[in-house]
Amino acid sequence: MRIDVNQPRPAPAAAASAMSRRVVRVTESAPVRWALTAAALGFTFLFLLLPLASVVVQAFAAGLDTYLSALADPDTLSAIRLTVIVALIAVALNVVFGVAAAWCIARFTFRGRNLLVTLIDVPFSVSPVIAGMVQVLLFGLRGWLGPLLQQHDLRVVFALPGIVLATVFVTLPFVARELIPLMEEQGAEEEEAAISLGASGWQTFLRVTLPNLRWGLLYGVLLCNARAMGEFGAVSVVSGHIRGATNTMPLQVEILFNDYQIEAAFAVASLLALLALVTLGAKLLLEWRHASELAATRRR
Amino acid sequence: MTQAGWISGWRKPSVLPGFGPALGTTLAYLSLFVIIPLGAMVLTTFAHGWADFVGAVLQPRVLAAFRVTLLCAFGAAALCALFGLLLAWVLVRYPFPGHRLVDAAVDLPFALPTAVAGIALTSLYAPNGWIGALLAPLGIQVAFTPLGILVALTFVGLPFVVRTVQPVLQDLEREQEEASAILGATRLQTFTRVIMPALAPALLTGFAMALARGLGEYGSVIFIAGNKPMVSEIVPLLIVIELEQFNYAGAAAIGTLMLAVAFVLLFAINRLQRWTRLQHAD
Amino acid sequence: MARNTALTRRATLARGAAAVLPVVLRPATGHARGRVEIMNVSYDPTRELYKDINAAFARAWAAQADTDVTVRMSHGGSGAQARSVIDGLDADVVTLALAYDIDAIAQAGRLSRNWQSRLPDNSAPYTSTIVFLVRKGNPKAIRDWGDLVRPDVQVVTPNPKTSGGARWNFLAAYAWALDQNGGSDDKAMGYMRRLLKNVPVLDIGARGATITFTRRGIGDVLLAWENEAFLAIAEAGGNKFDIVVPSSSILAEPPVAVVDQVVDRKGTRKVAEAYLQFLYTPEGQELCARRFYRPRLEAVARKYEDRFPKLELLTIDGKFGGWTRAQARFFDNGGVFDQVYRPGG
């Protein structure tokens, strides 16, 4: 089905022009192709890879020792810990939500289904700053529930719960958005067969649905986790910036930057960049090994 | 395990169980994390009536921030569409060494925390940065001008276009292009008359998604923008500033207006995606 | 200067080694195992000062009480920090850039409205002023406020809407312009309009503006806290910047206060009050002076006399009738700042 004119050949220009005389031309002339490829490569390098490189270069600008001692700073360690805790909670919650949402949206047809899909997308297009502000409006001391919380000596904003709430808000669509198209693509036949053969709902879910979903789920978890660990705007509003307590890694980057510890700031930033690279690597691996199962999620 | 009769009125019957609990979980979760918080914001906005909302939003500084944000987000989305199409095209049509690497790099803005992107872009484009130093003799300053916002938003929005256009381009049937060529069309004509119409819905969807993302973006922009009121101050920053001036109603009012804009965009995106899927199904 | 950073780093490590790092779900409660923890919510440029103060206070406190004290810090723009405390950030003490921000906290009911009379010197244990930081050798020959409106000069200052320091900058410039023009507000506003036209970047906080000027190479002159200007020179290393002292400036009195609602609930009033009083002791004053904050104590002031240039210092109370009035007139929505800030115009 694919026409082979643009396979890489030892002498692409000659081959292509020779072919274009024999076959009809369904690709561009060699110079155009080269120009476009060069433009795309240049753009990728200048625009996408150079920022990454600059982070790494500046992180190690003062040498490996400075880099390591920057990461061993107790405030930085606490930021790393908090970031991991918040991401774990947010991802776990969003997995449960994503599976539930995908089950009712992809397996059933009901009125209001489209509205539900739109609602799931809302956090995606609302500014993260708003995600933080609404927590303050609700749980701040002058907010709707703030006084009640204070009576019971409970903290939400400027503590872990507020940071988790803001992070969950921002990352809410990620898992659901991966699973819904995947489940729609797969169809309900297998599950219907299992049910009609007498399996219970949970058995069907655990033995049929989940195994089919696992790679898509992992994919969603990866993206959700990357965003959860990297969220800045939402967390910045609700964190209170207490050093060694409520600063996440992105906030710690900003703080170190403002403390004239530029190398340390870039050291923490390089950890976040590493997280991005690991995410991309894992994603690449998934796509390579499970391309067909994941193809659906790309067609959103 | 079949659902109670009252449900069947608004949903198609299915042999699969678990609709009730799944929908219940979904709605409870959405309410807790999205609907109630956003509702609190809208209620805070209108607690003192419509006039206060209009008054808060019609201030010149707020309007200027909306203008800057919309213009930059539109410009960035257009750049994303241009370069996203280029990248998707090259990735799908021209195999070259390092193809996989470039494909993976496209997702970098998804995975890189926005604050890190902001600091990195600022240090690159500042007048004494790697790129800024090259542009400075030409009299072009990117960091601390609206141009900087454009760069940051383009960075953040690029993957949306590539990832929506790429699969459509992959599935595009080459027969139509062949037919067009056999009928005597030049390659450019084939591109504009055959390929582009097929790609348009996906390209528009990607554009709209990049636009939606750009409107709300905060972390990467505040580092590079310069944050001058009326010139390079974006709406999310203005919300933060209003909060810091203890003006909660004003912050909530601006937030509510942004929410409304986001809803309109989401609606448009969903319509576009349905269109894409229909075209795709042909 | 290199030694300076090394010391700072060592201080951080030492502090960190002693600190346990609980993730705060519930606020730390009182005197667990002979330890007490208080939180100081402060503004941007005091990071280095309170690093020193906290270590010294911990030693002084341990010597005379049977508990160890850890002071947690939160830094940010003064207004942003006040907002957090109003919204429930559990600050035992606040040490902010201007009285207006602590007044706002008092208005929200979190501390007594008479807070400013509870400690000596208007509750401001140290003072500062606004000076100019210019590039080495002062290539643009900037000598006084009048030079800032020259068309060839670019001025870096943070946004007065979000930064306490920037409000001091604004009022210092305005006060000078008033004196130059025989008290004409119209002419002073004209001066401010021309000054703001020369501002290429308005950062959110004072520290952000300093970094824009020093690291990004933007602008010819930075309007900065005196202590921030000295610190910037030290941090930059080498001889990259000079300080220019204008003919007149403003007397900045960054105030401190105990947040009653928090200390009474946590039972930390005693240590919180001791912490603020420590700032007024000779040892505390000496630490302030070393970080280039002007000490109140006569003896310490004399000792460090030569590091603080003499200039005419105007007060907010004398010139603008206090912070509440100055804030409403200059910085609230629709105020003088909004009227004179017309970029591109």
UniProtKB/TrEMBL annotation, chain B:
This is Sulfate transport system permease protein CysT. It comes from Limobrevibacterium gyesilva. InterPro entries: CysT_permease (IPR011865), MetI-like (IPR000515), MetI-like_sf (IPR035906), Sulph_transpt2 (IPR005667). Keywords: Membrane, Sulfate transport, Transmembrane, Transmembrane helix, Transport. The chain crosses the membrane at residues 21-44, 64-92, 104-126, 138-162, 194-212, 246-269. Belongs to the binding-protein-dependent transport system permease family. CysTW subfamily. GO terms for cellular component: plasma membrane. It is found in: Cell membrane. Part of the ABC transporter complex CysAWTP (TC 3.A.1.6.1) involved in sulfate/thiosulfate import. Probably responsible for the translocation of the substrate across the membrane. The keyword Transmembrane helix applies. It is a multi-pass membrane protein. The complex is composed of two ATP-binding proteins (CysA), two transmembrane proteins (CysT and CysW) and a solute-binding protein (CysP). Residues 66-269 form the ABC transmembrane type-1 domain. GO terms for molecular function: ABC-type sulfate transporter activity. Pfam families: BPD_transp_1.
TrEMBL record, chain C:
It is found in: Periplasm. It comes from the Bacteria. One of its GO terms (molecular function) is molecular carrier activity. The keyword Transport applies. One of its GO terms (biological process) is sulfate transmembrane transport. GO terms for cellular component: periplasmic space. Belongs to the prokaryotic sulfate-binding protein family. This is Sulfate ABC transporter substrate-binding protein. The lineage of its organism: Bacteria, Pseudomonadati, Pseudomonadota, Alphaproteobacteria, Acetobacterales.
